[in-house]
C-alpha cells in the first residue's frame, strides 16, 4: 500500500492481513476469523487476493474459492459493499465469477480488474460502485 505496508490473504485461515513495513510486529489489521469460513460481511471463504486504492486507502478482497465475490472495505477494515455471484452454466454474465482469483487496480481509470480464472476472462468494475465496465478475453478464448 502507499504507506509501505504489506497486504496478504491466507486461504487456509480464511483471513486477510495488513502487515507493517518493517516486519516482526503483530499484524496491523486482521479481517476474518481463523479457520472459520463464512459468507457474511465479516468472514471470507478462501480469499485469493487483496489490493489497496492508493487514493482513498480503501481495499478490495477477492473472496474467490467459495463465495465468488469482491468485497470493499474502508482503510480501518469496515465493510463498505460487495458485488459478484457464482456463474451458472452457459455463458457467464457480467459480475458472475468462477473463482475471482487476482485483482489489479487501474487507479487512473478508477477501475478494479478481476481475473475470473475459470471463466478465462478479466472483468473490470468501477471502484466506487462495483458497476461493470468491460470484459477482456484473449483472442484464443473467443468464440467465433
Description:
This protein is mainly β and 144 residues long. It has no helices and 13 strands. The strands form four sheets. Strands 4-5-6-7 form a four-stranded antiparallel β-sheet, with no helix packed on it. Strands 10-11-12-13 form a four-stranded antiparallel β-sheet, with no helix packed on it. A hairpin with a 5-residue loop joins strand 5 and strand 6 (69-73).
Average pLDDT rating? 92
- Shape descriptor reads globular
User: What order do the strands of the largest sheet run in, or round the barrel if closed?
Assistant: 4-5-6-7
Could you state the order of secondary-structure elements as H and E?
EEEEEEEEEEEEE
Q: Which range does the strand content fall in?
A: 35-45%
Structural class: mainly beta
The count of strands amounts to: 13
Rg = 15 Å
Count of helical regions: 0
Biggest β-sheet: count, sense, barrel? 4 strands, antiparallel
Key terms:
144 residues; mainly beta; four-stranded antiparallel beta sheet; 0% helix
Topology:
Elements: E1 6-10, E2 15-19, E3 29-31, E4 49-52, E5 59-63, E6 69-73, E7 79-83, E8 85-86, E9 96-97, E10 100-106, E11 111-116, E12 121-126, E13 132-136
Parallel strand pairs: 8-9
Antiparallel strand pairs: 1-2, 2-3, 4-5, 5-6, 6-7, 10-11, 11-12, 12-13
